[in-house]
Amino acid sequence: MNDILVSLLKNKVDEYKEIDASMIIYQAELLNNCKMNYCGKYNSNWMCPPAVSQNELVQDYLKYQKVFVFTKITHIEDAFDIDGMNEGRKKVEKIISFLQRKLLYKYDYKILGAGTCSRCSKCTYPYAPCRYPNLAIPGLEALGINVVELAKTCKIKYYNGLNTVTYFAAIYYNG
After folding, report:
1. Three-point CA angle 132, 90, 151, nearest 5°
2. DSSP code, position 83
3. Nearest CA to 123 among 137, 109, 111, 144?
4. Radius of gyration (Cα) for the chain, nearest Å?
5. pTM of whole model > 0.90?
């Protein structure tokens, strides 16, 4: 699967690394950031707490042996360029959608994105079931993954210079 992902992501991402899934650390205390609603998505999305349980998500991902982590660097005007940051995250979402189209029904895998799922323009949570449960993507943070620590584990750069944001995503699969 590593070779397939490398081929699919050639010229689309900035860095990537395959690691053993056992190297991923899940930190329950990171969910406090969710509860404090730093990103504004708490209690408003099927792929974010409290709609998802970190323990249930982690158990679902623990069945995989390998993790392919990749990054996409976005250049922004300044630290307050929210529009630029959102555009960068949308680029990662397009890459993830591309991967889903190429991999769906061919392989057993799970993807974690950069931030919350935004497959739909308006999430149905909590009034109706998720429209696309097989395509909805939780963020790394929903599993309690500290992205700074993940970058260190993978030996991938987290900080790529002034006026940049580096978005991380991960694909779990069996070797």
Report:
1. 100
2. H
3. 137
4. 15
5. yes
Sheet holding 66-75, edge to edge: 15-20, 66-75, 164-173, 109-112
What does the alpha-carbon distance between residue 19 and residue 80 come to, in Å, rounded to a whole number? Answer: 33
Sign for the pseudo-dihedral over CA of 50, 170, 62, 29:
negative
Residue 70 contacts residue 168 (beta carbons within 8 Å): yes
pLDDT in tens, 65-101: 999 999 999 999 999 999 999 999 999 999 999 999 9
Question: Quick one: tokens of 49?
Answer: 């707490």
Alpha helices per DSSP H over the chain:
2-9, 31-35, 54-61, 82-103, 147-154
Phi, psi of 101 (to 5 degrees): -60, -35
| CB half-sphere exposure, 32, CA atoms < 13 A | 4
